[in-house]
Structure formats: structure tokens, C-alpha cells
Design goal:
The chain is of the alpha/beta class. It has nine helices and eight strands. It folds into two domains: about 1-15 and about 85-209, Rossmann fold (3-Layer(aba) Sandwich), CATH 3.40.50.1000; about 15-75.
């Protein structure tokens, strides 16, 4: 058995425009602050150590009002502009048709992840779509990956698994779960620690198949 676990944002799909629109909506609505660039927002999200409420809204913690309005806004916004990166659909189809087990481990909330992947018509290829709300600690902690591997009754002596992601948290979660990592350079972070480095989704096929 072979298992490939994908990160979502910056790996399977580009969601930065909608994330930025929702963050900037809260900044203007609640704090009368000017908009942040998509690049700054994505870089902040992908930092290993950061205080996002501080970076986005100038608060020490996420205020309930910000959290609640963001979730309502983003639930509608998240399917306005996302798109699969070039080669992702074909790669997923080839893996799926070859009998490879596919799942998603994302630090985004599960309902948003399912909504976006369904919107892009690829959700049905994944056995599990696990978001941060499904675990006690999100990536780089290995809990998300371990839950997926346990779902498959993964046996380290007989089976193989890879985590494909675009930032250091993905790579660390793979290391912490004891599986191989594949770093995607086309995503939100151009570099990071990794076992294998790829520049196009199709390169996953060479590694896995």
C-alpha cells in the first residue's frame, strides 16, 4: 500500500486571493486598517512561529468578533477565486487510478477545505480531508498525519507514505510522523527543509509510482 497525504493551500490549490480578501475585510470593518498584500498574508500564515492576530489585526489574540465574522465571510469567499495549480488534477487522477491512497491534511478548518475541494471537483479522490479542527494540535505536530495513517491501518514495515506540502510545517509533520516528505516549490513558500524537492506536480508520479 502507498499513501500520499497532501497539504491543501499552496500545494493543491491557490487560495491566497480569497484569504486576503477576508482578512482585509475584518481589518477594515473592525479596525479601520488599510489592506495587507496577498504576499504578506500568505508569508505570515506559513511562518513556523508567528502571532497571526497581531500581524493581521494588531491584537494579541483572535477576538471572538473577528473570528466569527471571518468564518461567515470566508465561508462564502473561499470558493470565489481558488484554482488548482497546473498539473495537480492530472497528477491526482493518475495516482487515484493507480490505486494510491490519497488524503488531505490542512491547517485550514475542515468545512472550508471540503467546500473548496468539492468546488474544484477533486474532493471525491480523497479518503480523508482532515483540518485543524479535527485535531488537538495542528501541523507541524504529527497528529493529523497519524490519524490518516491509522485510518489506512498503515504498517511501517510493509507500506510507504509521503507528505506533499509547500512549507516547513508540512515537512516537520512528516518527519514527526516518520514518513517521507516532498516539498512543492510552486506553492506559497519557495524553499524549506525536505527529503525531496519538486517543481511540478507531475514529479510526484516518478517518486510514488
Amino acid at each position: 500500500m502507498k499513501v500520499v497525504i497532501f497539504d491543501m493551500d499552496g500545494t493543491l490549490l491557490d487560495s491566497k486571493k480569497d484569504i486576503a480578501i477576508s482578512v482585509n475585510y475584518i481589518r477594515e470593518l473592525h479596525y479601520n486598517l488599510p489592506p495587507l498584500s496577498e504576499e504578506f498574508i500568505v508569508e505570515a500564515i506559513n511562518m513556523e512561529v508567528r502571532n497571526l492576530p497581531k500581524l493581521f489585526y494588531g491584537t494579541e489574540f483572535y477576538e471572538d468578533k473577528d473570528k466569527n465574522v471571518f468564518e461567515i465571510h470566508y465561508a462564502m469567499q473561499c470558493v470565489q477565486n481558488p484554482y488548482l495549480y497546473d498539473g495537480v488534477l492530472q497528477t491526482l487522477q493518475k495516482l487515484y487510478n493507480s490505486g494510491i491512497k490519497l488524503s488531505v491534511a490542512t491547517n485550514a478548518p475542515t468545512p472550508f477545505a471540503i467546500r473548496m475541494l468539492e468546488h474544484l471537483k477533486v474532493a471525491n479522490m480523497f479518503d480523508m480531508i482532515v483540518g485543524a479542527d479535527k485535531v488537538v494540535v495542528s501541523k507541524p505536530d504529527p497528529q493529523m498525519l497519524n490519524d490518516i495513517l491509522n485510518h489506512y491501518n498503515f504498517d511501517r514495515t510493509k507500506h510507504q507514505a509521503w507528505m506533499v506540502g509547500d512549507n516547513s510545517k508540512d515537512m516537520l509533520s512528516a518527519k514527526n510522523a516518520g514518513i517521507d516528505s516532498i516539498f512543492a516549490t510552486w506553492g506559497f513558500s519557495p524553499n524549506g527543509q525536505h527529503d525531496k524537492l519538486i517543481h511540478m506536480p507531475e514529479e510526484i508520479l516518478d517518486i510514488v509510482l
